[in-house]
Amino acid sequence: MKVNSSKVLIIDFGSQYTQLIARKVRESGIYCEIYPFSSRIEKIKDFNPAAIILSGGPSSVYDKGAPLISNEIFKIDVPFLGICYGMQLIAYLLSGEVKPAKNREYGYSKLEITKKSKLFAGCGDDDPVWMSHGDIIVSPPNDFIITSKTGNGNIASFENKEKKIYGLQFHPEVAHTICGHKILNNFLFDIAEVKKDWKLSDFIEDKIKEIKTEISSGNNGNNAICALSGGVDSTVAAVLVSRAIGDKLVCIFVDNGLLRENEARDVFKFYKENLSLNVKLVKAEKIFLSALKGVSDPEKKRKIIGKLFINIFEKEADKIKNAKFLVQGTLYPDVIESVPVYGSSSIIKSHHNVGGLPKKFNFKLIEPLRELFKDEVRLIGKKLNIPDAITERQPFPGPGLAIRVIGEVTGNSLKMLRKADTIVAEEIKKNNLYNKIWQSFPVIIPVKTVGVMGDKRSYESLIAIRAVTSLDGMTADFAQLDYEILRQISSRIISEVKGVNRVVYDISSKPPSTIEWE
Fold first, then answer.
1. Burial of 441: CB neighbours in 10 Å, binned 0-12, 13-18, 19+
2. pLDDT tens-digit map of 310-335
3. CB 3.0–4.6 Å: which of 56, 170, 247, 322 could bond 15 by disulfide?
4. Considering 84, 123, 226, 251, which one is annotated as catalytic?
5. Structure pTM?
């Protein structure tokens, strides 16, 4: 089989880390795609990969209904790398032995390299690696050699150098595996000899051509309508599409009443004056707040907001001749968390621009950023000359402040939250932390606590502060803010936000928590 020496295929078996593998591969300058484990062998061959990576996953190879793939895949003459479940699957399909471990390995483990391997070139003999599995490989397939073990003697890696099939029981794609990036690069460049030719500049050029062709096909009079939110994703998507079709793109910026203080006014002005986008402002606060009245369930909130967005776009589109396409700034993490589009990854929550769409609506979706991570989108924005005021903004959820008001959304709770949000942003920026933190924001909790204010008993609301560090939003840890910064934020909120008498700080990571509370 003739391979394309510049593409890598990742087969997804349900790991929440699959997208991190893709991100690492792209960071190395290699184009990759992710296919579900259920993909037909013919489809995999048609992709014509230079190498195939089998992801991890939460299942056991012996589970009923476990995600499996035909061992016909190994007849494709390309190098393979199995990671965690992917390694166990290689053993299972090629007559090795896999069985449940007496004690699940989770977290750091020391790697003991027992056999020289190209995979570990440049790595230390006892580098820490990150484990997350409940099964172990008791014996590798015939003609495979064990190349490393963990401190407790379990097989950590094996390989068949002649067939170029390699397996790792640990996760090289996560930051906890110190030599992980080196191991992946050893596989990609030294073993698979993949060419380094994935560039975001090429992506921009190719995507502009693709959009131009799709929107113009069949009818040169087709127009597109774009859902602008003020955030990085929708803005970059809009500018990218406008480069492709110019005035045929009509942007709609909806003031849904769920935005931050003065955001609708300021962002609309920025779009008009700084980006020269053809944008229309629709004021719809009353519509959204009315629809959300009495609704506490976060999934219902998201779907209500998503449906209203589409209804408004449809009404606005009726005023635009030949509006056939809807442009959205959907990103890869949105897709992963909402719907297992590529594989068996479990659904975390729906995003309004993924899970909130009705089954039938009158537009064809254009999602130019759907396969990208947030950091890639920021880089594209810079290459498109979008000012830092947009590209360096912290992520803001599509449903807006509705999912930062826990429980029912009311005008009063939004007023309190906006004021608290302004304070958090001011203090984070004042301490030069805004661009170092992935997200920082307040959440209003539907409980009241007893306090003492002005020598009198108070019984008022609670606000939680969330600040996290992250590379891509898929995993995150709480930001270890200085106590004096937290003290100042707390003091200002309690003093300046009427109705609040207590502030707490969220110190949970993702996973197990998500970044947003809802």
1. buried
2. 888 778 888 888 888 888 888 876 76
3. 56
4. 84
5. 0.68
